[in-house]
Amino acid sequence: MGQSMTVNGADYTIIKLLGHGKGGYSYLAEKDGKQQYVLKQIHHEPCSYYTFGNKIESERNDYQRLTDAGIKIPKMIDIDITAERIVKEYIDGETIFDMVKNDISVMPYIEQIYEIAEQAKAAGLNIDYFPTNFVVQNGLIYYIDYECNNYMKEWDFENWGIKYWSKTPEFLEYVEQHQ
After folding, report:
1. What is the DSSP annotation of 116-136?
2. Neighbours of 78 (CB within 10 A)
3. How confident is the model at residue 117 (pLDDT cuts 50, 70, 90)?
4. Which strand (E) or helix (H) includes residue 177?
5. Does 103 share its domain with 168?
6. Do 42 and 77 fall into the same domain?
7. Which of 47, 85, 88, 123 could form a disulfide with 69, with the two C-beta atoms 3.0–4.6 Å apart?
């Protein structure tokens, strides 16, 4: 990679692509050759199953809602509304998705995800429980996305998210479609 991206006048060197979601591309980035961050570039690619408003404003608002709910998320370091870029704290660790895919038990984290789900529900929120959105660091799971929506039972962890936290038919179908 090695290219540079600017956020509010600060240059970040892109190390690698971390992921491509329905809202943007997330990159591992460095500033001044020292600290590592996640730099998210919002995209406007179509998404057949989700409708967006103003993505960058949603990210900022959702960050506040998640923070107010007490959910463990990476700190937002900077946000550039014009360039539609966000700089986040980098949480280094393995995703729950990779653990499931590689037959590593996620049982030690099930209690934590239920606690997170309770925090979200108590705040009137659903988060995206898909396992690529959770990173384990020092025995704790962090929700690394900022997406949240108003609570709806059909999209909570118990009714939707849990389907992807083990090698269920839904998980295996996703892996097959995204290889």
Report:
1. HHHHHHHTTEEE---GGGEEE
2. 16
3. very high
4. helix 169-177
5. yes
6. yes
7. 123
Cβ–Cβ < 8 Å for 14, 39? yes
Say what the pTM is.
0.92
Residue range 30-79, pLDDT digits in tens: 998 889 999 999 987 766 665 667 889 999 999 999 999 999 999 999 99
* Last residue within a domain, chosen from 89, 106, 126: 89
Which segments of 4-138 does DSSP mark as H helices, in order? 55-69, 96-101, 107-122
State the chain's mean pLDDT as an integer: 93
Same domain assignment for residues 125 and 160: yes
Residues 31 and 103 in one domain: no
CA dihedral 128, 3, 77, 155 (to 10 degrees): 0
Task: Give the mean pLDDT of 99-122.
Answer: 97
Q: What is the CATH number of the domain that holds 72?
A: 3.30.200.20
Residue 54: predicted pLDDT: 82
